[in-house]
Amino acid sequence: MLDGWMLAALGVAGLLFVIALSGIRVAQEYQRGVVFRLGRFHSVRGPGLYYLLPFFEWQRVTDMRTVTVNVEPQETITRDSVTVKVNAVLWYRVTEPFKAILEVADFESAVYQVALTSLRSIIGQHDLDEVLKEREKINKALRENVDRDTDPWGVTVEMVEMKDVEIPQAMQRAMAQEAEAVREKRARLIKAGAELEAAEKLTSAAELMASNPLALELRRMQMIAEVGAEQNTTTIVMMPSEFMTIAKGLGEAVTRNGAPARIG
């Protein structure tokens, strides 16, 4: 009879020992345990070894590492009424585990839905050109918007980046034509600027040579040397520069005195 009691006592002691050991918990360095006691929030424990009272305490383990989420492509309309399809990547992490458990039923799904709606809202506030050219500005506004909405849940949004922007084929062709027209305009402006600069240089050179006849003679000799170097059959007739001076003087005299009277 005594042996039976001893065996029963040993069994009960063993059962109590097993139950006591069942309360031991270990959380990794990147994990936190949100502990509830009799249904009420009690504390946040971890990382490392800690103990839960069996039958009285239970926990929800939360991962504190940064989570990367691919936001599925969203078809939305820009401010200038262009339909685009945009997808993005979201990085966030839990900073206050008890809020992530207590304030929202499923914080992962909630953060994802906030990112979806914010992406559509932010894109709708910008023109197509801004969406394509000012991504950093839009990414910053998107991150601030998502972070503001998820802050009550103990979630911090680290970064949001638009990964791809798809636009209709017709709009792509129109943008290609616009880009080609801009390049053609730039080429014409550069050519016109070069012609204007060349004309200014030639005008300055002509004025300088007109004030110094020796410079004109040197230029004529240089041209003769250049023509002769081409090994062609061009015949060059040299005329003294004094003829040009006399012709210029006669022209000025005629201009001052008026046209000569017609004879006959």
What integer is the average pLDDT?
A: 83
What integer value in Å does the Rg equal?
44 Å
Instruction: Give me the number of helical elements.
Output: 8
Stretches where pLDDT falls below 50 for ≥5 residues?
none
Describe the protein in words.
Helix content is 54%, strand content 24%. The radius of gyration is 44 Å and the shape is rod-shaped. It is an alpha+beta fold and 264 residues long. The longest helix is centred in the last third of the chain and has 43 residues, at 169-211. The model has no long low-confidence stretch (mean pLDDT 83). The strands form 3 sheets. The chain has a 3-stranded antiparallel sheet. A 3-stranded antiparallel sheet has the order 6-7-8. Strands 1-4 form a two-stranded antiparallel sheet. The protein has 3 domains: 14-62; 67-167, Tetrahydropterin Synthase, Chain A (2-Layer Sandwich); 169-224. It has helices at 2-21, 97-102, 107-124, 128-133, 135-150, 169-211, 213-228, 241-257; strands at residues 24-27, 31-37, 40-45, 48-51, 57-63, 67-77, 83-94, 155-166.
